[in-house]
Amino acid sequence: MNRVVVVTGAGSGIGRAVALRFLALGDRVAAVDLGRDGLDALAPDAAPDRLVRLAADVGAADEAEACLREAAARLGPVDVLVNNAGTSGGPRATTLHETPVEDFDRVMATNIRGPFLLCRLVLPTMVERRAGVIVNIASVAGMAAFPGRSAYSASKGALISLTRSIAVDYARFGVRAVALCPGMIATPFTQWRLDDPKLRAEVVARIPQAEVGTVAQAAAAVTFLASDEASYFNGAPLPMDGGYLAL
Ligand SMILES: NC(=O)c1ccc[n+]([C@@H]2O[C@H](COP(=O)([O-])OP(=O)(O)OC[C@H]3O[C@@H](n4cnc5c(N)ncnc54)[C@H](O)[C@@H]3O)[C@@H](O)[C@H]2O)c1
Predict the structure, then answer these.
(1) Taking CB atoms and a 6 Å cutoff, what residues make up the pocket around ligand 1?
(2) What is the tens place of the pLDDT at every residue in 124-146?
(3) Regarding the domain delimited by 4-184+215-246, which CATH topology (the fold level of the hierarchy) does it fall under?
(4) Which residues pair with 33 in a beta bridge?
């Protein structure tokens, strides 16, 4: 479709599947991640005018700005921004009083400051062009607390609110924003839990569909939400969770 799409956290998991799906649709992709390893393995044969690999920490203002400047210079103005990069903060970021302040700050920097910075950079051009879609990858943890993940749940709740604010402030300029809220998806992010048979059984027991989701399902949801077929979806948090939140 030849849109310019920025996907953060594209070196792994959901972001990788999203980037590959946009490429397969004929779009041009700026793939952003912390390091080069995952990015170098992403579509190694893609032409340089179809895929640009950018190493950046989305939570660092200077890196976010440099990265979007380079994406626009090499591919053109951004049509779609997918804020997917995320972290749960590691094993110490659990219940509130156990979460080290630096872990809280790191979760917030990646999961909410990053999307804020990137949206801030793409919105002026989207407003000018009267077009643009922002898909924020939040989580069911932003809609209902996820046990033992207080910073993560707070960050994803904030991302859902940020999405609503963008919809309310920018709809009149032809810009849409939606928050996809996945439940448990099999990725390197969740692998430790799903690789343990006991933990996996506990997870699956809480999902009405009795199965974890796939990155392909998440990528299909993102490309749909970014498409004109989804042109009346705006501002809403959309669970994609096999029925988890319906229980
Ligand atoms: N997997 C799930 O079950 C699940 C469920 C709900 C929401 N999510 C959300 O989906 C998104 C992707 O998760 P995933 O499961 O694919 O994880 P993942 O760990 O496989 O991939 C995340 C990617 O983000 C990158 N990243 C992390 N911090 C970054 C930063 N500061 N700047 C740039 N890149 C950064 C990582 O390097 C990694 O490549 C996250 O926002 C996560 O919160 C995942």
Answers:
(1) 8-9, 11-15, 32-34, 38, 57-59, 84-87, 110, 114, 137, 139, 182, 184-185, 187-190
(2) 999 999 999 999 999 999 999 98
(3) Rossmann fold (3.40.50)
(4) 55
